[in-house]
Amino acid sequence: MKKKLLAIVNPISGVGRQKKIEKLLDTYLDHDLYEHVVRYTEHIHHGTDLARQGADEGFDVIVAVGGDGSVNDVISGMHGSNAVLGIIPCGSGNGLARCMNIPLTPALAIRVLNQDNPGLIDTIILNDTFYVASIAGVGFDAFIARLMKAAKVRGFSAYINLILREYPSYKSKDYHFVVDGKEYDRKAWFTTFANSNQFGYNAAVAPQAKLDDGLIDISIVDRIPIDHVAITGSLLYANHFELSQHVEMLKVHEVWVSGNVDKWVNIDGEGENVGTDLHFVNHQKSLSILKRDMKRPLLSKNAADHISAVRDQLQMTRDQLIPKIRK
To answer: Which of 42, 79, 182, 258 is most buried, most CB within 10 Å of its CB?
Structure first.
């Protein structure tokens, strides 16, 4: 008996790769394994309603087609059901997909769905209301997420431009943390509460985080002086952010946070007005998700040979053209 698969597509997510999803599903989805339906979101958090409806209708797999915000909407709707999450990353950062080695090419991500390899990962619950699949954050992190939510243009360049524009004026804030019963007072520029290892874009703000260890990885980041930005940024992208003198990292099961004066929290890349007092709890192995089986190739040998042949032909063409251009 075929499994029922619902693909929930955010038509404005990321950089537009999601626009051809129906054709890609028709072409690459294993139709002996799945019968599928595609539905499109029409407004903010509509993905949550569609996922809840899909779970009620008995869909076995509910696929988020979009970025981390789209994934968050879907898990918020399917939570508590027997449905399994799938991801076709079409957003900008795609932090959870990158952490799970799900290809950013939609056709290959669909082949991950075809592997039918479910597993369990943790989620973080915020204030008994919000679900976090990848990363939450307060401070500058949340401030930028808030601005991105209102921005007309998405993507990495828009994200970087906002950071560069707002960096000089944003001030560190005083926070009080109660971490597994221990109290900490810290001045922080931003603080992240991580389930996955990164914001997205391969920016590993929590390089030691694991998706199924039952822990929240906290990164408390003090304001980084201008002359330290280059080296700190290099550590961020080299999976060694913990080596920065401006970073303090903790691994915890539960944390209370007070002093969030901005009231905004970055939840999986989307800014949400949550309040001044926050409570994060890890719920270990609470989300069923289709993982990539790294022992099984995504491409058949014939397909891999074809790609290799095309690559060789392109290289030959390049080698032939360059001497002519130079003349």
So the answer is: 79
